[in-house]
Amino acid sequence: MRKIILFNSILTLLLSFPVYSQQRPQIQIPDSAGIVMGSLVDAGMQPIPYATIHIRSLPDSLSQGMTISDEDGRFSFNPIHYGLYYIDINAMGYKNHLTKPFTISKENPMHRMPRYKLEERSEMLESVTVTAQKNMLTTNLDKKVFNVDANISADGATAVEVLQDIPSVDVDLEGNVTLRGSENVTILVDGRPTNLTLEQIPAAQIESIEVITNPSARLEPDGMAGILNVVLKKKKESGFTGMVSLGSGMTIFQNKAYFENYNGNVNLNYTYNKITLYLNYNFRTNGRHSAGTMERTSWFNTIDTSYLFQENSSDNSGMSHSLRTGLDWFINKQNTLAFSFGYNNSNRNSSSETSSDNARVRYGEYFPYMTYDQLSKSDNGNNHFNANINYKKEFNVKGMELVADLYYTQMQGNNINRMSQFYTIPDSTPNYFQRTENITSNRNATAQIDFVSPVGNGGRIEAGYKFSLRMNGQDYSLFDGHREESLVIDSLQINDFLYTEYINAAYLIYSNTFWKKLKVQAGLRAEQANTSSDLRSADTIIKNPYFNLFPTLHIRYEPSEKHNFQFSYSRRVSRPRVYQLNPFVDISDKMNLRVGNPLLMPEFVNSLELSYLYIMKKGSLNVTAFYRQRKNIITRYTQIFEGINEDGGEYTYTLTSYENLNKSQNFGFEAVLGMRINKVWRFNLNADFYRVIINSDDLIDENLSRDWAWGARLNQYFTFPKDWEAQLNFRYRSGSLTTGSMGWGSGGVGQGRRSPSYSLGLSARKSFFKKTLTVSLNIRDLIYRRTTIVNTYSHEEVSGYDATSTRYNSQFQAYLTLSYKINNFKQRRTPERGENSEEEMME
Description:
With about 850 residues, this protein is mainly β. Helix content is about 5%, strand content about 65%. It contains 3 helices and 47 strands. The chain has a 22-stranded antiparallel β-barrel. A hairpin with a 3-residue loop joins strand 24 (about 430-455) and strand 25 (about 460-480). The longest helix has 19 residues, at about 1-20. The chain is globular and about 95 Å long. It starts with a helix and ends in a 21-residue tail after the last strand.
């Protein structure tokens, strides 16, 4: 052990030589900050080097900084803003220690800890406790942090279920995510784009989810409504720790029980001196079942009316493996190097049955002209991996740092779909068979460098550059015929498409504090984007270069510790997605065709927010008023047409594409109340209300261009004696405008209104053996069957349609999860620049 310590000491001295060979400059401490310092010793009063030390704020227990004790066991945090804190100490071979809370204030700007003696890891620590409990939802003025570990209902779930419990976020039956009523949301994983779907991210690997509605210029401007950042678990505690969990779920659909949901998760961490290794593995099987009907009445240049009725049921099952591993090397107190790698393999099989009845309606009488049954089966496989290298350099000047980051992710997918249609009317129509093959390849790469430096009296400058490359390819083929064993390729249905986008971006942010209570941050981000849509199967290339500026402004006024006001502004963009640009006409569903629009332009928004935060003795209240003005809105648009069958008969079908509308306005209010009533009961109550006004130049019916909508959530948490916990969640969302859905699977869409929805969930957890073993039961949709009704329509001068779609999903879901902690495993997020509530402001 002495040789290892000596080697690390020499390595630290060599790497730090350029630093200590210079005269250390004097550190300037802002007026509203102080210093925390101390030292660590063992039972023999010998110093303890290389301990990992966090300073955490109360009552949220969020890390406000991290350091490593030096060779003499000393450590310090400078500067630390006024507030209530405690120290969290982790050292290999010693118990985890939490100090008593202390206050940094104008009257007490320095907290000097006496020599802190650590006990060897031989028995559980009972003498030192911190009464604060990590809240499920932490509300800051610039963002909201949803702590997944505190959410019992997340046990055995995926990111989809976790998002359903977050204020202002909604997830529909198809897995589409909306924030404050907008689908234009950017979803990041650890602050970076990802090819993973939300279903492929197990909740057991999620530390928290950040809702950032008005980010600073440092973050990418994508996403009209804001950013949902999924922060994965990654901890640094001395020694070997871990957690193993196993789960099983049951669903009930149409009065039939299915036992097909299983999951296993392993989180392992090992820290020795300056090296931290971690490994996370997850295995999951799941099944989904749905059914529904669609009824559509349409007319086209004739007194006759066409009527379509479809009834559908589908079953699908999937299996996935997910692996994340990484290494963090704390070279010395000023240099950190981190490596990470992730791999995900998923396979999903699905089958569906659809009956379709088509009829002409003439003078109130129905005349059937096309009736068939359709059977579909699909096999979908994906392989995804990502790699990351991150370097962080802290300089002698406190607050000055340099961060460099390289990231690469790739997804390879293969989907095969087989479809059969059996006609009964007209009986002369031969059966139809179809097979489609689709190979996808998505690649993303980013290179980024960020520099932060204090300037003047309490000011700070941030500057950075980022290069990002995105390449999404699709190779699609369709085979069809009237005999399943002799299908031939349709040369008109070959889609070889490649979308390429590369962006050069630079940003500059200045922030400062005036009169101790007013904090201002102003930023500007400049981006040069170059896109190319290459339909290689048609020898067609469309290029679209564009340059844009994205200003941001954040102003915070703090008249007292209990009251905070903030105003923020940002300009953001929503770039067209690959399937929205692809000009290929997809006829795999002959009743509902789809085509992209390669001439789509990016959508821009000016977003303003005014927030108020009131901190009470047992809780907090956050009220936000927001306003968004959108231009060049990207929306789905459906029209009705008439076609000719092989036998010469007419039929109606829909064609869905994408258009840029003129502009829209969206404004509303949002309130979040968090309270701890007593030691047993605490809750979070969220309500939001918003108005949408669309100016579409008559592209959308006037009745679908105005909307009022609201929603509410109540999450209650109960802590009982003998390590019992319970959680009760209720959610309601009013009816709202939607682009709707018609058809099934890859069917068309329309513009209309979605029905209200609500759900009640109940969860319970029991801990055993000093909280090393936990058993949790999670029940979703306890009081109702999940049903969604969408009414869509389009009324033009000579044509139009009215349609009603009804979807049913699993009506009752129950999950049982067992978790075992190794060496008192505790999940805590690794502190990074911008983690705390000052992320979008200044320190």
